[in-house]
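Follow-up to my earlier ticket, as requested here are the two runs.
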Amino acid sequence: MAPQHRPRSLKKSDLPSFLKPLKPTLFSESSAPPSSRYSQPLVQKIADISWSPTGSSIATCTSSNVRVWNSGRPNVKSSTEIRNAHPRDGGEWGRSGVSGDGVEKVAFSPRDEGVLASLGADGMVRLWDLRTPNKAIPVGDCKVPKQGGVLVWHPEGHQILVTVKSSNEVHQIDVRRLPTANSDPLQPARFTLESAPRTPDAPHTVYTNLAFSNSGRELFATTTNAGVQILDYPSLTHLHNLSAFPGETHCVEHSPSGAHVAAGSADSTISLWDTSTWLTPHTLSHSQQLMPIRSFGFSFDGAYMVAGSGDHLGTMGKTEGGGGSSGLHIYHVDSGDVVHTIETTNCPTHVAWHPSRYWIAYAGDPGGLRVVGIGSNVL
C-alpha cells in the first residue's frame, strides 16, 4: 500500500512557481482522441463536481447522468457511469433510452469513500455504493415533495440537508446504515433515508445555498437578499446575519482552517469574514471576473481560494462554455491578492479543490472535466 499523502502548505511566494508549469488534464467521456488538437467531443454541461474524502475519486453530473472518475486515471474506461440516475415517470435507472430527469447535485459522504449521494431535479435523493470497480449500486433513496435545489452532507455523515427551490424550506434526511444479511464486507450495505421538512426560525427569505461549519453545530445559508444567515444546528434557530454586498449571495463555505467564512455574490466578489471577530478584512475580486460567483472553494489548508461563475441558465441539453472571462484566478486569502491565474479556454463554471493537495477540478472548457495538478506528486 502506498504511504498516506501528508498535506504540505506552500507560502504565497512559492505557490505561483508550483502552479505555473502545470497543465489541465482532460477527463474525456470519449475514449477516442479528438480529430484535431483544436477540437474536443461535445459533452453535456457539468452541473456539479465532488471529490471523495481522500481525493481518490471525482464525481460529476450532467443533464441526466452521473460519472465517477478515478482521479489518477483520466481514461473514461477507468470511470463508472450511472446512466439516467434519476429516470422520469418511474422508469428504470441505468437503461439506455430511458428519459432521465436532470441531476442537480452530487456529493460524496464525508465519512465513507464508497458512498455518493445524488439529487434529481424532481427532489429524489439517491445513495450509491461505489466499492465495486466500474459499477454503482443504488442502496437507498428518499424523495423531497418539491423540486430540490441544494444537497449538503453533515460533517459526521449521518444526515443530508436538501433545500426546496425558491423557498427557505429545508428537508433534513437521516441517513442510517442497515445491517447486512451476512458478514461479507463486499456486500453493499443498504441505507434507510427518512426525510422531515424543516422551516428555520429565522427571517423569511429564499435560500440559494447551504454549508455546515466544520464542527457541524452551525449552518450557513446564502440568501436572495444580500446576506448569509447563521443558524444553530440541529435546531435551525437563527443566530446571526452576515451582511454582504448588494445582490444575491450564491455560495458559502467555512474554510478548512476554521479561520474564515466566505460567500460568493452576484456582484462578482467574494465576501470574507474572520471567524474570531466576524469582521470583513477584505473582499476577493478580479478585474476580469465579470460573472456572479456561484461556485468557489478553499484549498485544503484554507490559505487560497478559486472561484467559478456557476451555471445560472440551467444544465438541460446544454454543452460546456458560457459568458464571462476565462482563467482560474487563485486568491491568497489573508492578503486578498490574486497570486496566480491558470489559463482556460472559457469562463470556469464549477470548481473544487482536492481535499489534501493543490489540485483543482473545474468545468466549463470544451471536452468536459479538467483537473490541474494531476501527475504532480510533490504536493
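Run two:
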Amino acid sequence: MSFARRIESRLERLFEGVSATVFGGKTERLDIENKILRAADLAMFDHPAGPSVPNRYRLFLHPENLPLLPDAATAADLERVITETAMDEGWRLNGPVSVTIVSDPAVPTRSMRCESETVPGPQEPWANLLGATGNVAYPVTHIRSLIGRDRDCDIQIMQADVSRHHAVLFARNQQAWIYDLGSSNGTRVNDIGITTTPVLVRPDDHLAIGGRRFTLKWAYR
C-alpha cells in the first residue's frame, strides 16, 4: 500500500463520526485528505537512505470556508497522521512535520489548495545507538538514517573501516531494521553479516558497523 493510501486510511479514521460540511449549499466533506495525498505523492523523492516525503504542508482555503472545517481537521491532528504514517511505512522525513491552514481569498469557495516542501530541521530521536559501556553514542533522529563516514550521513562515524555510505537504519511498523550499502568492511547483526536486504533488529541485538559495536535502544519504550 502506498504512502498516500496509508495517510488516506488514517485520515478516514480521523474523520469518522464527523458530520458533513456544507459548501455552497452542496453537502460534502472537505477534501483535505486528497489534497495532502496528492502533494505527498507528487513530492516524494529518493534520498541515499531511501524514499523520502515532504515534511511541511500549507493548506489554503477561502476565508468563508474556514469556519466549516470539522473539529478533527486541526493542524496538529494532520501533523500526527502524517508523522505516524511515515513511521509505519519507513519513509524518511528531513524535519518535523508542520501543517499550516491559511486563509486565502484567492482560493475559490468550495475548493482548496495544498503546497508541500521539504525543510530540514531537528527531530526528536526515535532510538539511540548505545556504545560498549551503555552510553548513548548516537541518537537516531531520522526515520531512515544513513550511517557512514561522509558528512552527509545522519550518523557519522569517523573511522577508517567505516565506508562513506555504510548502512541504513530505519523504523517501520514499530520495528527497527538495518541493511548494508555494499560497504567494504560489512555490517553485522549478532556477528552475522548482512546484505542489502533489510534485517530486523530486536532489543539487545548487537550491531557492528565496520569495527564499531552498538546496541539499539528505542527512545520511548
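The only thing I checked on run two: Helices lie at 3-14, 32-43, 75-89. Let me know what else you need.
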